[in-house]
Amino acid sequence: MTDLFTTIVRSPVARKVGVPQPTRLRRYEPGMPLCDGPVLVAGHGRFADGVASWLGGAGVRAVSAPTEAGDKVGAVVLDLSTAIDPAELDQLRLLGAPAVKALKRNGRVVVIGTDPATLTDVAQVTTQRALEGAVRSIGKELRGGATANLVLAQEDAQDGVRSAVEFFLSGRSAYVDGQVVRVDASTTGDADALRPLAGKVAVVTGAARGIGAEIARVLSRDGATVVAVDVPAAGDALAAVANDVKGTALQLDVTADDAGRRIVEHARSRHGGLDVVVHNAGITRDKLFVNMDDDRWRSVMDVNLRSVLRMNEAVLGEGGLSDGGRIVCVASIAGIAGNRGQTNYGASKAGVIGLVEALSRQVADRGITVNAVAPGFIETEMTARIPFATREIGRRMNSLQQGGHPKDVAETIAWLAQPGTGAVTGQVVRVCGQSLLGA
């Protein structure tokens, strides 16, 4: 979408007079290096050595400090997973501050800690919980497209740590900032780095346009066979997306009682199974709460929330999603922070977050993960219709000071759909550039 402010400040005249330029974020393309430069790995936690070894195997130079004054690094990984006392938090400052000063444009800061939920000692819980406030604050101080994120791991969660660190270092996470991902000790198999979804069948609802269409494209790029789902009224656009990704189109209304059954039958009959389900379909019907009518309230709840519950009954039933499968829902920061005029939408998306938390526990014994992404201000046809002043403010109200792209949401979903993310479940990852709305 056209961003008038960015267009103006990137004009030749603005450049000539020295107007600060919004950073062009480093977004993932197949075959690009994991990081732009060496990765500084520091700290004495349980994962640092493994991360350094893995980086070396991936062709990325891991260093323990900048080799010379003025040297720049592409990323910093700080492992404080064994810190047990608040006094040890000094290491975050002593190791991290000089490293952050050496970050290149679009650099990455990843801190590894231990999930406080797995600890009982008060001092340990206090110490590890403090990392969240520190990392979110660092993310708000970084400039030049750099991001800071936190991985909280259970003991022996090497596979999960590797997957999360790889995501946060890569261009896939360009618009993910100030986030916390918890990983458990689940083990996962290796996958093709360029086509991690090869051989998988993925269903994407609301796939005819916008974020849904981009999700279909990214999943296909990563190797998945995609079933693109949308309402019959969007049939032409849906067919175009399905043809583009060399998948199949399924026209249906997700609120229909038989929507889940039809999705499962289509995936099995046309492609032999079902491995990934992305619940992306959603609508908005905005109105101030005191003026909200039945139709606006019920239609949003039915499409955004109740349809997901109904479809999951069939998806998780006999002949549905394979063991080890992935369910990814699209929530919203409106479900976390609320939004004026969107009580119906905010309620539905908060409900999606609750669904993810509860369902992830119920299907864990089948190796199925259930996660959500919560987009912030993403450049789509819908946000282009927002009044100018509100739109420009929305774009800037985040640490990266710009709107995200549909691809940013799709990249995070594609990561959560990978076989290598079996250690990540029940999580909500915000794709919002660390929006100043909400945590």
Kindly describe this structure.
- The radius of gyration is 22 Å and the shape is globular.
- The protein has two domains: 151 residues, NAD(P)-binding Rossmann-like Domain (Rossmann fold, 3-Layer(aba) Sandwich), CATH 3.40.50.720; 231 residues, 3-Layer(aba) Sandwich (Rossmann fold).
- It has 439 residues and is α/β, with parallel strands linked by helices.
Short description:
With 439 residues, the chain is α/β, with parallel strands linked by helices.
List keywords for this structure.
2 domains, six-stranded parallel sheet, Rossmann fold, globular, 439 residues, seven-stranded parallel sheet, alpha/beta
Q: How are the elements arranged and paired?
A:
Elements: H1 4-9, H2 12-16, E1 39-42, H3 48-57, E2 62-63, E3 73-79, H4 90-101, E4 103-114, H5 122-141, E5 147-153, H6 158-169, E6 180-183, E7 201-205, H7 210-221, E8 225-230, H8 235-244, E9 248-251, H9 259-271, E10 276-279, H10 294-315, E11 326-330, H11 334-337, H12 343-362, E12 369-375, H13 381-384, H14 388-396, H15 406-417, E13 428-431
Parallel strand pairs: 1-2, 1-3, 3-4, 4-5, 5-6, 7-8, 7-10, 8-9, 10-11, 11-12, 12-13
Helix pairs in contact: 7-15, 9-10, 10-12
